[in-house]
Write a structure and sequence with these properties.
987 residues, alpha/beta, Aspartate Aminotransferase, domain 1, Aspartate Aminotransferase, domain 2, seven-stranded mixed β-sheet
Length: 987
């Protein structure tokens, strides 16, 4: 047993010069830190100074001067309603500890990691220790070109991660023998829950509300199925389907596990055939490594496959983040939730990738959406795909044989105590009355086994299992050690041969070309070069808060003390992790004004779901089952309505006024119409329109008076931290996006964390332990994506109260600066009282489009030629761009973006003046690749204008999009969801 200290060469360098200011230095008139009395005049900047882009002197002064205020405090007073504004001395942040320097914070994290125990994990249940190839750790996980990217909604500058996600889809489809896989799910249990509702939607023949599940499902998967089923009126029936016939009655679906929680392998083909004969569809939770050897579910007739890709190079992480998967046959492709990468063509006819189909439809359909999933686990999905690419089919098969060989060796030594003769990696052992003693003895050897019950122990082998581990486990049972892993007999009989798969897999070039580190290194670099991430430029996406993900925040997530602990390990193994979680829960309560926080939800969508589920259960416990109506403003995020529908609520839309605020007259009317049925209202604050609505306290009061609860969507919390607390101005529950306000990287569309925060009366309804079937858990692990929580812990610990408040005010100042500068060129659609916006602003292009034909798409694509990612397009208002600079961008970068937008407006004016036709101008032709310059040029604008719009001597580094504008309609008509063959690349 070893303690979880970082390996040599990783973690904080405590021998260097410390920041003696500790983040608490005072600021002089010129923005320079002032030394405290008696201190040595040797200075490093505080972390807050490193995190916040505009310096606290001249740059901030320029921002404020343009906005028309003299100080950040005056800005707060003008922008934020006085009724909710906290005084700087009474904003709840006094509960936070003093700010630390980067080195000091890393030292505290090292101590927390070191207090954890990294035991040999043989627990299993869908979580297995694995070895991340160093080339992937250094060049993918630790590379900001990958982890700071956003969801690939601008595909022309996202081709690298789209190709990597297509590899993931191909890997899953190949191994499961299904035709279409999506670009990842949040974890295995949530993938199973999505599979359940997919079966019900897709089964048009059955009207039954019943779902049949096998008793050998992973317990956390069973729990989430119950959580998700109850509000939807789905009745779950459990049965041992391997040893008995299907129960009587009709079912819309059947869900089984391969291998099961007990480790057994079952030939599910007869069960699938019987289910189909009864009119039911079947989903199989399948281990992808096992599928390299055994018959895949797709070849047995399964309709849906789900599972996790965690064991493909993604650390245990105390539960996450891990990429789940979901795969179907083509007939159900349009029912598939989440993201789907397909192959299309660009303007020059070249192969190009894009998000397809329901990626957009989910948000457009709102309460009729099939899922509320709007993020996934992109970074982890890419890691898993690259792991498969690096190992290839032969490497994965060899690894699977090694894992299975160790399990066979264990079984050979344990003889007739082994319950199942057919297994892959997990051996279930019958030791009547002796299970606890065996587990305790193994713990003394530094090995964690799984205590199933008083009579049974489960032992799971994985990539990290060694011969020595097998010998140690057998010794704990007092078993005779067989001669070797090939010990031929299983209690006097030949063991079942599980290697029955005959179909090929992973034959596409992505899985055959990159066997050497040199090849993989160059492949990763070539892909990242095709993308725009935060390491290259500002990403001004409104509502997404793409801020700095500091290296000091990121460093500890690769330490074994945080990422090699099993989520179901004994509690005494994880004191450091539990202390970190306890700290974070307390700090988030202080920031938001709520009483309790659960860190379990592993995405904002899951936080929304958990919060609404708490409201629903609160009303049910009070005997108010009739309260099932959720009021949602028309401007709200699409996921709000989808989440409400998922907890069984009816959605009623509240109108907004012409100025963008919620229409309180319409709200009063809706409350009157639904007073007896009102469950809650969901609002985003500041509003989705980017302003502080001054009537928010009154709004909350109206809903409370009618017996409803107030849900405040925390997507825009970056405009509130240190200024106002939703738990104090009327909110009963909020979810928080740690991947927005609190610096966890977006990772190209995941990972994320969406904690749910509640007032005390809802605390008992927070999600519980997923190993408890009645816990209403929403994630497979109790603390969700625990291994990335150190990022947020480090951010808060290094910023401190003053730094957090200054960050919020700087984000507001920067947004108002952009609004002032761009309003003469692109009118700002909404402002609050005093003409202020919050942390983002909406630029209205609708009149420009009407007069010139130039669209928001044209502007977005043209920005790529200027080296920028586009703002958020057509949300929440069609024909607009929503811009959010965050606090991390310095004035030089903000001005460069403003200059680009003004230059683009000048190009639009040229179109309006007839200099360039509407269908052939630099905007409609954008983005421009290097390749398009070398062919024939038949455009009314020059090549130089196309690719160097600011002039060839402009100092900003040139970003070369890898494809021209992509044909979206072609991609949806000709859906291709797996890697093209080598011939396609040759063509």
């Amino acid at each position: 047993m070893v303690k979880g200290q970082r390996p040599q060469g990783r973690g904080p360098n405590l021998s260097g010069i410390e920041d003696r200011g500790g983040g608490q230095t005072t600021i002089g008139r010129r923005g320079r830190p002032r030394p405290p009395p008696g201190a040595a005049v040797i200075w490093t900047r505080s972390f807050a100074d490193r995190h916040i882009g505009p310096d606290s002197g001249a740059e901030t002064s320029r921002l404020l001067e343009t906005v028309g205020v003299e100080s950040l405090d005056e800005l707060a007073a003008k922008a934020v309603p006085a009724s909710i504004l906290d005084a700087a001395a009474g904003n709840g942040l006094d509960a936070l500890p003093p700010a630390l320097s980067e080195h000091e914070a890393l030292a505290e994290l090292a101590a927390l990691a070191g207090s954890n125990t990294v035991a040999t994990s043989m627990i299993g249940l869908g979580y297995y220790d694995t070895l991340t190839p160093p080339v992937l750790l250094r060049n993918l996980v630790e590379n900001p070109a990958w982890y700071t990217a956003y969801t690939p909604y601008q595909p022309e500058i996202s081709q690298g991660r789209l190709e990597a996600l297509l590899n993931f889809q191909t890997m899953v489809a190949d191994l499961t023998a299904m035709e279409v896989a999506n670009a990842s799910m949040l974890d295995e249990a949530t993938a199973a829950a999505e599979a359940m509702t997919l079966l019900q939607r897709a089964n048009r023949k059955s009207k039954s509300p019943r779902l049949l599940i096998d008793t050998d499902l992973f317990p956390q998967t069973r729990t989430l199925l119950y959580t998700r089923a109850e509000p939807l009126g789905i009745e779950i029936v459990e049965a041992d389907l391997a040893d008995s016939a299907l129960p009587e009655g009709d079912f819309f679906g059947v869900i089984v596990q391969q291998p099961g929680a007990s480790g057994r392998i079952v030939d599910w083909a007869p069960v699938i055939e019987a289910a189909h004969a009864r009119g039911a569809l079947v989903a199989v939770g399948a281990d992808l490594l096992a599928l390299t050897l055994i018959t895949p579910p797709g070849e047995q007739g399964a309709d849906v496959c789900f599972g996790t890709t965690q064991r493909f190079g993604v650390p245990l992480g105390f539960g996450g983040p891990h990429a789940g998967y979901l795969a179907v046959h083509s007939a159900h492709a349009r029912q598939l939730p989440g993201r789907l990468v397909g192959v299309s063509v660009d303007a020059d006819g070249n192969l190009a990738y894009r998000l397809a189909l329901q990626t957009r439809e989910q948000h457009i359909r709102r309460e009729k959406a099939t899922s509320n999933i709007c993020t996934a686990q992109v970074l982890l999905a890419i890691l898993a795909a690259m792991y498969a690419s690096y190992h290839g089919a032969d490497g994965l098969r060899s690894l699977a044989r090694r894992v299975h060989g160790h399990a066979q060796w264990l079984a050979a030594g344990l003889g007739d105590a082994v319950v199942h003769q057919s297994f892959f990696d997990t051996v279930l052992v019958n030791v009547p009355g002796g299970a606890e003693g065996i587990v305790a003895k193994a713990k003394g050897h530094g090995i964690n086994l799984r205590l199933v019950d008083a009579d049974h122990v489960a032992i799971a082998c994985d990539e990290v299992t060694t011969d020595a581990h097998v010998v140690a486990v057998l010794d704990c049972f007092g078993a005779e050690i067989p001669v070797g892993p090939e010990g031929a007999l299983f209690h006097g009989k030949q063991r079942p041969h599980i290697e029955v798969r005959t179909s090929e897999y992973l034959t596409a070039p992505a899985f055959t070309r990159y066997r050497t580190e040199t090849a993989m290194l160059r492949y990763l670099r070539s892909l990242s070069d095709k993308d725009i991430a935060l390491d290259r430029s500002m990403i001004p996406l409104g509502s997404c808060t793409m801020k700095l993900n500091a290296a000091a925040e990121m460093e500890s997530i690769t330490w074994p003390g945080f990422n090699r602990v099993h989520p179901y390990a004994p509690v005494e193994d994880a004191p450091g992790l539990l202390k970190l979680i306890e700290d974070l829960e307390a700090w988030l309560c202080a920031v938001t004004g709520y009483d309790r926080v659960s860190l379990q939800p592993n995405a904002g969508s899951q936080g929304e779901y958990a919060g609404l589920l708490a409201i629903r259960r609160y009303h049910l416990d009070r005997g108010d089952a009739h309260r099932d109506t959720c009021l949602i403003p028309s401007s709200a995020h699409g996921t709000n309505a989808a989440s409400a529908a998922m907890v069984g609520m009816r959605v009623e839309v509240v109108k907004t006024r012409p100025n963008g605020d919620i229409d309180l007259d319409d709200l009063r009317a809706k409350i009157a119409d639904h007073a007896e049925r009102l469950a809650c209202i969901m609002i985003t604050y500041p509003s989705t329109h980017g302003v502080y609505e001054h009537e928010v306290a009154e709004l909350c009061g109206l809903v409370h008076e009618a017996g409803g609860q107030v849900y405040v969507d925390g997507a825009n919390l970056n405009a509130l931290v240190g200024l106002a607390r939703p738990g104090k101005f009327g909110g009963d529950v909020s979810h928080l996006n740690l991947h927005k306000t609190f610096c966890i990287p977006h990772g190209g569309g995941g990972p994320g964390v969406g904690p749910v925060a509640v007032r005390e009366h809802l605390a008992r309804y927070l999600p519980g332990d997923p190993l408890d079937k009645g816990s209403h858990a929403v994630s497979a692990a109790k603390y969700g994506s625990a291994s990335i929580l150190p990022i947020t812990w480090a951010y808060i610990r290094m910023m401190g109260a003053d730094g957090l408040r200054r960050a919020t005010l700087t984000a507001i100042a920067s947004a108002n600066y952009i609004a002032r500068k761009l309003d003469p060129h692109f009118p700002v659609l909404y402002t609050g009282d005093n003409g202020m916006v919050a942390h983002e602003c909406i630029l209205d292009l609708r009149e420009i489009t009407k007069q010139t034909g130039v669209t928001v798409d044209d502007v977005a694509k043209r920005l790529a030629d200027y080296g920028f990612h586009a703002p958020t397009m057509s949300f929440p208002v069609a024909g607009t761009l929503m811009v959010e600079p965050t606090e991390s961008e310095n004035l030089e970068e903000i001005d460069a973006f403003i200059d680009a937008m003004i230059a683009i407006k000048a190009e639009i004016d040229q179109v309006a003046a007839g200099v360039w036709p509407v269908d052939d101008n630099p905007l409609r032709g954008a983005p421009h690749t290097a390749e398009c310059l070398v062919g024939d040029w038949d455009h009314p604008y020059t090549r130089e204008k196309a690719v160097y719009p600011m002039g060839v001597k402009h100092t900003r580094p040139k970003v070369w999009p890898s494809v021209r504008r992509i044909d979206g309609a072609y991609g949806d008509r000709n859906l291709v969801c797996s890697c093209p063959p080598l011939e396609a690349y040759a063509e």
